[in-house]
Prior knowledge:
- A 7-stranded parallel sheet has the order 3-2-1-4-5-6-7, with helices on both faces.
- The chain has helices spanning 11-22, 34-43, 61-69, 95-105, 107-116, 142-162, 180-183, 195-207, 217-227, 231-244, and strands at residues 2-5, 26-31, 51-55, 76-79, 125-129, 168-174, 212-215.
- It has a single domain, classed as 3-Layer(aba) Sandwich (Rossmann fold).
- By secondary structure, the chain is of the alpha/beta class.
- The longest helix is centred in the middle third of the chain and has 21 residues, at 142-162.
- It is globular.
- The chain has 10 helices and 7 strands.
Amino acid sequence: MNILITGATSGIGRQLVLDYSKSGHRVYACGRSPDKLEALKKDCGEAEEYVQLLQFDVTDREAVRTTLGSLEQVDLVILNAGVCEYVNELSDFESELFERVFAANYFGVVNCVDALLPKLGAGSRLAIVDSMARLMPFTRAEAYASSKAAVHYLGNSLKVDLAPHGIAVTTISPGFVETPMTDANDFEMPMKITVADASKAIQKGLAKGKAQIYFPRVFGWILRFIHKLPLRLQIAISRRMKNAQ
Length: 245
């Protein structure tokens, strides 16, 4: 397969590039940092020949269009690039923070979809990474979780509109995964898994053609159950979690 992965220089995206290339797939590894991209390619070892590096920032619409517009048909797209910033105090509540987060997490996905739709044909698949954070009103997550909720809705809507064209869409909702992004968190992260396990869960789910992928499984069950509770109970649970920190 020809596979394109954004956010390829770190965390889940990096592991996916390593795993898919070593399985013999041609991988377009997309990232902002030329140095990190070159380091990634070297880490692929003998599978290096299967990896093509694409350097651009997903928030730069014209760079995305120019770079991705030159590609031929892609069989699988995994839009994984994203950032995380928290509203730590009410005094930190500023629109600039929300703009930064939405620029990468939401409009970064939109920019890539805009450029890649002409490259997707019948039988191809578009996978969009959101987050389980969208399932509850977590403290401090106003910007991050709302951007991921928007991405999840976008993915589900695309499932409807792309189906007649034979293009499948998968939404991917990770819990806590051990990455440089979560390393910066200063709170407890239950059931945190490795990037290797996250990559396996994604590969397995995509191979089965799943429309939604959640991992880790038990954590996903818990949060989806809470998500079905009345909002007042969700808020009460979140308040207790906040007070326990």
